[in-house]
Specification:
7 helices; Metallo-beta-lactamase, Chain A; binds zinc ion; 6-stranded mixed β-sheet; 28% strand; alpha+beta
């Protein structure tokens, strides 16, 4: 598995281009805006972009998804259907995040423990509400990589001051995921904002999880 981070919007949202080294099949995770910048990156790699995956329906994560799905002729998968509030309230999001209007229509909502494939790479979906009600993460067991969206960051966690968010639900969602830390093997966290971290490090040091 290989990946490239494409930071987009004023929120420096990490859009991930992820691909399988064997098949060159690829996916975009959370293309939150600046679709031209994303297309320019895609030009540099000879990949077969098969799908767009979404962790949650905040505008900084979905802003360029629909236009890219049309240009590249690929489906949008995710997040969990409990994020429908944010999908229906794009105008509210324009004000909240001060980001431009966009259309967002996904093809499939994803369910807890559903499996997604990018070429030969498997990602398991986990429903992790709290930051938004329908937030999901993508976990790749063989490489021990978690694409965590906005649930957890290096030394921080996702905002819970927004409508439909809840700090205790979020904290509980994160703690539930510790079952993934089997045999003391750590997990790399690729978050929606900021630099990568590790799950064990955050469980130990992140003051929001105390
Ligand atoms: Zn968010
Ligand atoms: Zn975000």
């Amino acid at each position: 598995m290989k990946y490239k981070i494409i930071p987009v919007t004023n929120f420096y949202q990490n859009c991930y281009l992820i691909w399988c080294k064997k098949t060159f099949n690829a996916a975009l995770i959370d293309p939150g805006g600046e679709y031209k910048k994303i297309l320019n990156v895609l030009k540099k790699y000879k990949l077969k972009i098969k799908k767009i995956l979404i962790t949650h329906c905040h505008l900084d994560h979905i802003g360029a998804a629909y236009i890219l799905s049309k240009i590249l002729n690929i489906p949008i998968l995710g997040p969990h259907k409990n994020d429908i509030f944010w999908l229906k309230n794009i105008k509210l999001q324009n004000k909240l995040f001060n980001l431009p209007h966009c259309i967002f229509i996904n093809n499939i909502w994803l369910k807890n423990k559903q499996n997604i494939f990018i070429g030969k790479i498997n990602f398991q979906v986990y429903h992790c509400p709290g930051h938004t009600p329908g937030h999901i993460i993508f976990f790749n067991k063989s490489n021990k990589i978690m694409i965590s969206g906005d649930i957890i960051f290096k030394n921080s966690v996702g905002r819970t001051d927004l409508p439909k968010s809840n700090f205790y639900v979020l904290k509980n969602s994160i703690k539930k995921m510790t079952f993934l830390l089997k045999n003391k093997k750590d997990i790399i966290i690729l978050p929606g904002h900021g630099e990568k971290t590790s799950f064990y490090r955050e469980i130990k040091n992140n003051m929001y999880l105390k």
